[in-house]
Amino acid sequence: MAKTFKNFIGGKWTEPLTGRYFQNRNPADTNDLIGRFPDSGAADVAAAVRSAQAGFEQWSRTPAPLRGEVLRRVGDLLVARKDEIADAMTREMGKVLAETRGDVQEGIDTAYYAATEGRRLFGRTVPSELRRKWAMTVRRPIGVCGLITPFNFPMAIPTWKAFPALLCGNSVVLKPSEDVPHTAHLLVEILLEAGVPPNVIQLVHGGEAAGKALVEHPGVPAISFTGSTVTGSAIGQVCGRMHKRLSLEMGGKNAIIVMDDADLDLAVDGVLWGAFGTTGQRCTATSRLIVHRKVHDKLVSRLVAAAGKLVLGDGRGARTQVGPLIHAAAREKVEYYLDPAVLQGAEVACGGSRPRGARTANGYFYRPTVVVGVKPGSRLATEEIFGPVLSVIRVGSYEHAAKVNNEVKYGLSSSIYTSDVNLAFRAMDDLQNGITYVNAPTIGAEAHLPFGGVKQTGNGHREGGWEVFDFYSETKVCYVDYSGVLQRAQLDTYDV
Description:
Elements: E1 3-4, E2 7-9, E3 12-14, E4 21-26, E5 29-38, H1 42-59, H2 64-80, H3 82-93, H4 97-117, E6 125-127, E7 133-141, E8 144-148, H5 156-167, E9 171-175, H6 181-194, E10 201-203, H7 208-216, E11 222-226, H8 229-242, E12 245-249, E13 254-258, H9 264-276, E14 286-292, H10 293-307, H11 328-337, H12 340-343, E15 347-350, E16 369-372, H13 379-382, E17 389-395, H14 398-406, E18 410-411, E19 413-417, H15 421-430, E20 435-438, E21 454-455, H16 467-471, E22 473-481
Parallel strand pairs: 1-5, 8-9, 8-11, 9-10, 11-12, 13-14, 13-19, 14-17, 16-17, 19-20
Antiparallel strand pairs: 2-3, 4-5, 6-7, 7-22, 15-16, 18-21
Helix pairs in contact: 1-7, 2-4, 2-6, 3-4, 3-6, 4-5, 9-10
């Protein structure tokens, strides 16, 4: 019999006030029931916020270096349980074990990086314009932070958000995707074991109702969301009206540009990993391949041959290279984009169907797909699919390639394969993305660097690196006048 899990609210594991639960099943084998999880509502969120507000009063007064030491212990526990968590994560969301181990490693790296920042929450000391006056800034926590996270990086993304928020002295209400609740449960267990005070971290499972209640709660002054641009736009309207601090990380339509002087063997490897890693379910996934006409046919031929050999199956299998999509709706969306009416004259060079065989019979699998003859500006060239579909676009020059890259509404990640160092630097300047890789695919963020995009990918804030600590803290300016007399600032004092 499958286990029934609970929320973590008010310092204890609690049943949902709604009395409702949802099932969490293995997308590689839908007969495998992982557990039943709370389908929470507004009352559950309200209870979590009340507890988090009490926790904030305690945690915000804990010195930042001590908060950092707690996060260091979190990192140590993640190291000790890495393989266990990776196995549970693969069972829950499908990607292969090598990727889920990397997902946990992102959490480890983020924990250790945040721990060091506990001694580096720098303010600034600057000279005052007045005599015998001290001027400085300090960083202060904000309050309760609401974190809404997606399914594709069940450990990495919650840690990208929670660890900096906690390090800065905030309390956290985490609402993970209902597709990956078990990984979030394991993360909260580890946070508590490491010494995060029980009221400081709240875990509320559920779907749209729980997420909406968290965004709209007046006691949550900061929201961080990763998900679709449509949902992010709706959240932005609420947060703007309620004057909340908001970080959005949303869609992508990322491209690899391959020039005629590129190392094609390297490019094929990069495109395969970028397009079909995590079954294409990454915001940084390579969804477009923009190829110079001189190498187009040769590159596509090699790519199609390699993609056709990728082994699909349960991500825990030793031979598996590509896992399932997360659920039936995700696979149906992929199939919709490969309908002749949407292809608009483009041609499926490989894939384009569900696989056959016992290995994939009970899961949401779809064959890695390469579509050639895609026209710039078409739906395949501009809309996010979030699945194992690569659209190939032929161009005749670097200038045309850069224009095609920039024509979409998203601006997360981009890549160029070339041996021309001057062209590489031009691309870093020309491509309208938050991230640009040279001779590497569009995926592979590092925890100590800012992560995010431009245009409709985000709203200007960044996950990761040093910039994320600015989002989870506020600047306070402090003045000390030790002159012993009234000094009238903002008047003409230079003749005094």
